[in-house]
Amino acid sequence: MSAADGMRETVRDLEKSRFFSGNFLIAVVLLVIAAILPFFFDALGSELDTMVWATAYVVFALGLNIVVGFAGLLDLGYVAFYAVGAYAIGYFASDHFNKVNGGKGIHIGASSFAADQGIHLNFILILVIAMSMAALAGLVIGLPTLRLRGDYIAIVTLAFGEIAQNVAQNGDHISISGYKLSAGQQAISPIDEPNLPIYGVFNSALNLQPYYYLGLALVVLTLLVSFALRESRIGRAWIAVREDEVAASSMGVPLVRTKMLAYGIGAAIGGAAGAFLGAYNQAINSNQFPFSFSILVLAMIILGGLGSIWGTVLGAVILAFVDRYLLDKVRDVPHDVFNLDFSTAEINFGIFGFILVLLMVARPEGLLPERRRKMELTEGVGTDESLFEARA
């Protein structure tokens, strides 16, 4: 190795160390703020409820960011993984399978408050099962898109999202070994509350803080996974596929494995968040999985900045506040002030649409953009002088 090569390697190591130290400091500060925030609100208040939903939305958005932001694979059916994770906890933390084991049920690590009938597993076990089921669903969705690009991927994933919703709605007409696939618009309820080794059994009727801290723990784990993946070999392969699939293939990047890993990992994270929300909602029904959910999660990534991990977190927190808190405050304004008769869905889409249009005009790269994407949109990477020198 020449002296010049050694110097460049040293510079890269220094830049990488500064990157990790900077992200670690940001993460510690944000984690401390997030940890003490619940003590300023009522234990059963709407503010804390919004914060619980915000943690779930952050996990969903980080999972989709792997597929869309890292690998550049547009996914409009992400709600399917929410449904898979939610039904996983509906199957394994309720009396849905009420005839199993001769009607005596199966209990593994569940609380003593769980019903006698049905399958009742510990929340951590269900989380692993939900992630596995969602990852398998992600691979199934990813297979038809391997030869597709751009808008065609969006159409196929959109179809899978609609299929998942329709299966959830009509699953009560499908029986397997005497058990319905879903309860349709009726709920699978009640769902066992989590029973964690250190804390014990949650009780959402008295305190929402345990759910918030559980969601915050999922956020931290997902952040660690996201940062590790982005700096890994597979992360660089995803970025190469996103930038130029043909060039990545010619340089030896295995497209099939790279895309399937993106779909599988992103889906597994979505399944974990779905299981968490299923436990928090205490009921699973088909009305919880509309197509608009996929658009909402995608909007979080666009708002924060495609491919940006911290931008995705910021976008998810902002839209969680808008979706779960602000809309309830302004929903009656069009009718009361302007005498306009709009439905709730129309008002919601109008507000989200206004936010995204305003963002595209003022800051198209997102609130906290990834460095590469910021350069593409604002500095013109394609006109860099080094590129012309390389071509010469």
Order of helices and strands: HHHEEEHHEEEEHHHHHHHHHH
What is Rg? 23 Å
Helix content: 55-70%
What would you call the shape?
A: globular
DSSP, total strands:
7
Helix/strand-derived category reads mainly alpha
Q: Give the low-pLDDT segments.
A: 381-392
Quick check: average pLDDT? 81
* Cα separation of the termini: 26 Å
Q: Please tally the helical runs, counting DSSP H or I stretches of 4 or more residues.
A: 15
* Sequence of strands across the biggest β-sheet: 1-3-2
Description:
By secondary structure, the chain is mainly α. The protein is built from 15 helices and 7 strands. The strands form 3 sheets. Strands 1-3-2 form a 3-stranded mixed beta sheet. A two-stranded antiparallel ribbon has the order 4-5. The protein has a two-stranded antiparallel ribbon with strand order 6-7. A hairpin with a 2-residue loop joins strand 4 (175-176) and strand 5.
Q: What keyword list fits this structure?
A:
7 strands, three-stranded mixed β-sheet, two-stranded antiparallel sheet, mainly alpha, 392 residues
Describe the protein's topology.
Elements: H1 3-36, H2 46-70, H3 79-92, E1 93-94, E2 106-108, E3 119-121, H4 123-142, H5 151-170, E4 175-176, E5 179-180, E6 195-196, E7 200-201, H6 209-230, H7 233-243, H8 245-250, H9 255-281, H10 291-304, H11 309-330, H12 333-338, H13 344-362, H14 371-379, H15 385-391
Parallel strand pairs: 2-3
Antiparallel strand pairs: 1-3, 4-5, 6-7
